[in-house]
Amino acid sequence: KAGIRLLDELEPVRWQHYGTDCPHHGKSEIAHTFWVRTAQCPSCGNTFYLYPNSMITYAERVERKRRVDVTAFFGCSKCGGITRAERDSNNVTCAHCRASLSAQGNTAPLQRGGLKCPYCGALHRCESYGELLNGWNPVLVQRVCSENGQRVLHMDLPTPDEVQQALSCDSTLSSGALLENIPWGTETARLRRWSYSTWRDLYPPRQLLVYLEAAKVVDRLFSEKPTLKRRLLLMICSSVEMAGFCSRWDRYHLKAFEAVANHRFSSTPLAVEVNPLGPRGRGTLRRRLIHSTRAASWCSEVMPEGSAKLVLAPSEKDTITLSAGPVVVCGSSDRLLLPDSSVDIIVTDPPYYDSVQYGELASLFTAWGYQLGLWSSDLQVDLSGEAVPNRSRNVTDSAYRDTVCRVFAEARRCIKPEGRLILTYRSSSIAGWAAIADALRDAGFHIAALATVHSENETDHSKRYARSFSSDLVIECSPSELLKPPAIVTPPRTPQEKELVIMGEVIAGQSQAGKETLTSLFHQKLQDRGIESHFIR
Q1: What digits encode the pLDDT tens for the residues 219-239?
Q2: Which string of DSSP letters, residue by residue, matches 425-488?
Q3: Taking the C-alpha atoms of 369, 375, 380 and 384 in order, what is their torsion angle to the nearest 10 degrees?
Q4: How many C-alpha atoms does 395 have within 13 Å on its Cβ side?
Q5: Residue 134 three-state SS
Q6: What is the pTM of this model?
Q7: Secondary structure of residue 498 in the 3-state scheme
């Protein structure tokens, strides 16, 4: 009921900033706005448009069984204009300046190593542009319209009124965490190199205004109900990951991806702004409220009030008494509240070496938490204990290994002699595998079985055409010494599954520490089985 009331209060804001008149259907609403960034060439001084590919998006999703529209929208890096043409055409000409476009995107200015000016051909690194890497321009919209009594989504060029609507909004911030500089780090450097200085820079003006206005409405309506108020603010805080200058677009499946999709900050120069109050689209406030309500309903059914125990930031003296009800503990995994030799099974998912900088990715939500008053400005976030190698914080491979080892050792303390530790892992770096192998051995675990499981969508936009993992290795470990090699539960079929299983076998049989030993044994097993290494290096 509170969510419905919040959305009702925000209806005037919704239609003021995203309501429009479609030239084809009349009154409608903008679901997505596409923005392209511009740059001024340091060599010739011309301004050009940073389309990552000439083809921006299909007009219709590829999954449609009955394809009616087989066109796509192409962007010109010289004039910025949009041209609609056959989606599979290899010979597209800009309808505005007659420049040649290509469906394969080889005319795009984004090149390996920097930006290539379409006028003079000069190639400069992104960092060298500085203030010459400047404004954003709305070039395409997706509207939600009504046709024959049914809701339809369709792509179109923005009308002059829609361009003005997107550019004219004033969302000036006078204070708050969103105005603080984005800290330099291993992952946040992707944003800083593309001239995002503050967290506020990640949002188009009207989108930012809607998020802030929603928070004001929550404060006004529910100030006397702090628990409900906090829950609603958390929904806003989760929705802000659809940052309009930092969200990517899947041009084949027509959907937006959050700024931290695939565990990477996006620095795309062609971004898509989601209407936070819209009826369609990923990450809208409406959908967050719906899913939050479903989660609360499920929780109340599975864990009736009083049946679950919650422990926040446990102290050294805290322990728990095992019971039938669930216990949720928020703390570090190297300090469990369980008695010795009391657990049948522990399932864990160690960080995949340095491939995901969890703490840095969370800093976006941390900033919004401060901005919305979800926590005090006195609260400081300490990432020093994070089990992820990070050059910016000088967290080395040995520190990663030691942290994971402490966690495994604590798990072994709690597991019964006949119990099991189950973990999933994958990494393209042998250094990561060496750390896991050392940590398991030093904690006193022995590998009993191996399996592979499909865990990722290989057709995802970030993995498409890339040589990356879509499977994990599942490792079953025993605290007791075993006299036989690990069982292979699922015979490997694909090349990556074979590499994962071989690495698991090497770890299981390794008696000496060190990356060099692991590397030698791994490549020897690959050679013995006639397999070439593609995924683990």
Answers
A1: 999 999 999 999 999 999 999
A2: E--S-HHHHHHHHHHHHHHT-EEEEEEEEE-S-TTSTTTTTS----EEEEEEEESS--SSPPEE
A3: -60
A4: 21
A5: strand
A6: 0.90
A7: helix
